[in-house]
Amino acid sequence: MSSKYHMLDKSHGHVKPTTTITKKIKICILHLLKGLLNSPVTFFKSSCSIIYVALFIIVLLILNGQPKSIFPPKAHIPWLTNVHHVQPLECIADMNQPGWPRPVLSNDKSDMNLTVVTVSARPEFKRLPVTMAALLSHLDSRRITEVMFLVPPQDVHLLQPYFSSEQVKSWPWRVSVISDNILLKHIHTTSYRLQMMFKLFVAQIVKTEHYLILDSDCVAVWPIHVEQLLHQNKNSSLYQAINHAEGRSSHEKWWSESERLLQIKLESCVSYDKSDTDIPTIGVTPSILSRTIALRTLCRLQKLYGDEIFLNKMANWALWREIFGYMWTEYTLYFLTGRCTKIFDTYHTDNSALSSSNSIARVELTGFSIWSHLDWTVKNQNKLIESIHNGLRWRQKETDEANGQAITDKSTSMHNLFAVLQGRHNVDPKLYHQYFYPLYIKYLQQQKQSDKLILILNNMTRKLAINKH
Ligand SMILES: *[C@@H]1O[C@H](CO)[C@@H](O)[C@H](O)[C@H]1NC(C)=O
Ligand SMILES: *[C@@H]1O[C@H](CO)[C@@H](O)[C@H](O)[C@H]1NC(C)=O
Ligand SMILES: *[C@@H]1O[C@H](CO)[C@@H](O)[C@H](O)[C@H]1NC(C)=O
Fold first, then answer.
1. DSSP helix, strand, coil percent of the chain (3-state; round to 5)
2. Ligand 3 pocket, mutate which of 170, 459, 463, 464 (most atoms under 8 A from CB)
3. Between residues 246 and 355, which one has the greater pLDDT?
4. Closest residue CA from atom 8 of ligand 2
5. Domain coordinates of the chain in residue numbers?
């Protein structure tokens, strides 16, 4: 998947709404500017133009209020936006880097284990049966502290039946459904920004240094073992997470906007060389984050804009520029913080740096995926089915020969762990369910002690995937 294609169709696991409206607005702005520049006096004298300007502002506000993501629609009204945190963000000054306070972290954490976090909401729940069936097939429970769903408070009850105290006994890992209002309480906020904020704020409650962020559309296609995701650094004994390094150029507008929000000189911490080979940065969901860097990002913003005020700053930041594709994102803020404070390499490692040690397989979080309806061809459907079959065959081999522990596939140098099956506006998720769910269920049926889980998954399918909301 080229990064260019990535840029066009993917923004953090979510298809942006059709851009035709945006195009019309751009043309409208051009007309307005032309009128303004050609004859400013007559322009302002004409009451008609004033009406246009007023209409334009109203349209702008309405557009920004459109739910671009998975949270319930509630118009984003900048002057009514109110976001506040539930657990205060505690930060302490860093003598060496006065502009970048460090988070105060509790000690109850594990460096060697991993937490899996899915930020989801009701409109996305129909994707969960296949996502969960895939995770149940592939996620090795060793060194998994918890699989966590962060969902809006009004949606918790929809997932609870599958993760009640009676049901959790059947799941191979600890699994919990957490109401997102234990982190942030919010009204009149663009949902898309909230989702990005939650991906950083969840660091306040995870009990491991690293956490894997998944969206509801990330479907596991190859066995997932923590020892292939977190590598112990021989020098420092710290664990470093693999990072899917993408160049900055594929999302340049996100980078410059994030630099503005963080108030750092453009390209000072992360350089950008258009002509040269791209300098590796960070990709999009799925991604592994370090809670130290995530919270340090928030500490910086809190210092810059003030306690709590920074939350509304993030929510309302440069709304009008978003129309032109400029927006801060959680991953660009995170990476910039990691680089400016020089701690990124403490918590992350580049996949290419691992190639020398052949004892552990190299994996990438994502590879072949469906980004738009154009990708949903018979050829690609078969390609996905084949890759799911291959992955499950390998997982079965691990179960049979190594008690479920990793067996390195020496026939290839790299495996992709997840396929992103996007499509809220493109491919109906029911099709994904119809094509891929049976493959995972067939595998699970051959496993020991999976009867109860299959009943739970089938119940999820009946309630979430087949019923429409
Ligand atoms: C890591 O997770 C496993 C469960 O997968 C658990 O048994 C173990 O105690 C955890 N280790 C730490 C240090 O938290
Ligand atoms: C370990 O330290 C040595 C010497 O300081 C350095 O050359 C090497 O790159 C370090 N290795 C890792 C994995 O950081
Ligand atoms: C599945 O749903 C049925 C009816 O809705 C319920 O009686 C049953 O206990 C559920 N089974 C599991 C394993 O959740």
1. 50, 15, 35
2. 459
3. 246
4. 235
5. 18-65, 91-466
